[in-house]
Amino acid sequence: MRTKPMLTFSKLDEETGEMLDRMFEKKDCMVEINPGRVILPADYMTIGQDILDMEVLEDDVWMCSYPRTGSTWAQEMVWLIGHDLDYEGAKSLQQIRCPLVELSCIMVDGHAEWHDESVKGTSVDLVKYRLPHPRYIRSHLPWDLLPLDIQKEDGTVKPKVIYTSRNPKDMVVSYYHYCKLVHELKGTFEEFCDLFMRDRAPFGPVWNHILGFWNRRHDPNLLFIKFEEMKRDLPSVVRKTAKFLDKTLSDEEVFKLCDHLSFENMKTNRAVNLEAILEKSFGKSYLEQTNLRFIRKGEIGDWKNYMSDDLSRRFDDWAEQHLKGTELSFE
């Protein structure tokens, strides 16, 4: 009889632990999870094994990504295609109609009241017991921490998995601003980028994350999307995603969906822009006092406004070491 795989949790090394505690202003805020040396909020320890062991269904659609890859944008596209362009249904909060399975370890502290009222239990319970079928489920977890039903190469259940990727140079800039806005991160961009490049940022290591899905890109139940492709030619990505989901869209329907997904519309859409949650957590005046926004710029190459030449070179060298021989590249 095979033994059931178990996650292990360990305290971070002193330097990393102290740096993260200072930046997030919370003692012992992160732990290391294995397999994968993944850094995650400590509350993950209460739900991680449940996620690993949860039953996955054949008609599930799992939307996976590292944080800040355009995943909110992609998930809105996927949910609407999968729900036959139900724009009325899409007016409900995206965080509930297609939730992060690990949401309960992220929306803690200042967000606890919103979480308790909206999620009603844990995010794992929400996915298991209350999502309508077929279930549309998101996750920022790496491949090794997803449910074992998904990981099994010889498994009988093959849900659809859609992975959204982005140039990590732009991703780390967006991630830093997200952490400042949503988790009130303290510290400089350089400090955060240093953690990211040492695989010590939350949800890191980043290359293991991306390549865990990239190396399975030829699996018939996995679609690998790049943020940059969506920016350059959204209609093509919409059609490719529709085909993957066994849906047919007319040119007119593609046009209307791309308009719904435009940056201007996404930025003001309260079902996706997190403003309702931020106002509930921090008060109505919070967004009036900051220029930061959850849907921020949506640009390619914004890293040039934040990285020095030296940091950019070091980042490129680091990326090249991990991408060599993988056939994966980012613009």
From TrEMBL:
Residues 59-326 form the Sulfotransferase domain. The lineage of its organism: Eukaryota, Metazoa, Ecdysozoa, Arthropoda, Hexapoda. Keywords: Transferase. Transmembrane segments: none annotated. Belongs to the sulfotransferase 1 family. PANTHER family: SULFOTRANSFERASE SULT (PTHR11783). GO terms for molecular function: sulfotransferase activity. It comes from the Eukaryota. This is Sulfotransferase domain-containing protein. InterPro entries: P-loop_NTPase (IPR027417), Sulfotransferase_dom (IPR000863).
